[in-house]
Amino acid sequence: MDDMAKPKRHTGNRLFRIIPPAAVSAGLALALCWALIFVYAPRESTLGLPQKIFYLHLPLAWWALSGFFLTFVAGIVYLRTGKEQWDAAAAASAEVSLVFACSAVLSGSIWARASWGIWWTWDARLTTALIMCFVYSGYLILRSMDMPPARRGRICAVFGIVAFLDVPLVFCSAWLWSYIHPPSISLEPEMKLTLAVCLAAFAPLWLCLTALRMKLDLDGRRLDALQAERLSRKERHS
């Protein structure tokens, strides 16, 4: 047996041990969120029931932006170290965070219909958030292109670093240019508690999904390496 051709096992097994407890924590925390949203938090006098989508909209947006920051950091570390774990972390974080970001845009559109009477307006925050979704969709398309893994990793790392430039714009846009999206909202104490719990509850959900996606990515790379090794052996024995 040729040890030189044997693919290396990926590291990060300790990280992946958090997936089951994170999944359980996410389930319990989200169940608590639903109870707080529909039982504990009072109904807003003006918007009524549609206002409660805010408790999902803000956590989705918050963890999407946080996840894109991880993609940014992981891309920098990958360029410095060349370790595939960081490339996989960047890819997984971007993929999960894009789902969160698109969900935030869609839930915000429903809220806008109830609050402003329109589904969409080219407000600064809405526009920059939509651009962010398009940019990171392009990032994932780039990752799916057929090219050597190391080269793809470097190109995607640079792309992910540049793409992050839009994230601070999304965060600050409501204070700088927004004319309809409020930079802040006044909430009753019960609403503030519900929102805080929802923000915390989405943390294990995001972590579980990102770690699981990263594990699938690294397992897929290992399978590709094993397949390449198998083909190499066949060629040597033929």
* SSE-based structural type: mainly alpha
Q: Any idea of the CATH class?
A: Mainly Alpha
Low-pLDDT stretches: 1-8
The average pLDDT score comes to 87
- The CATH architecture comes to Up-down Bundle
Largest sheet: none
Q: Report the span from N to C terminus.
A: 16 Å
What's the alpha carbon Rg, rounded to whole Å? 21 Å
Helix content: over 70%
CATH fold topology: Four Helix Bundle (Hemerythrin (Met), subunit A)
Number of strands: 0
User: Helix count?
Assistant: 8
Sheet-strand content, in percent, reads under 5%
The secondary-structure element order is HHHHHHHH
Tally of discrete structural domains: 1
Shape: elongated
If you had to describe this structure to a student in words, what would you say it looks like?
Residues 1-8 have low confidence and may be disordered. The chain is mainly alpha-helical and 238 residues long. It has one domain: Four Helix Bundle (Hemerythrin (Met), subunit A) (Up-down Bundle), CATH 1.20.120. It has helices at 13-16, 19-40, 54-81, 84-116, 124-143, 149-163, 166-176, 189-237. Helix 3 (54-81) runs antiparallel to helix 4.
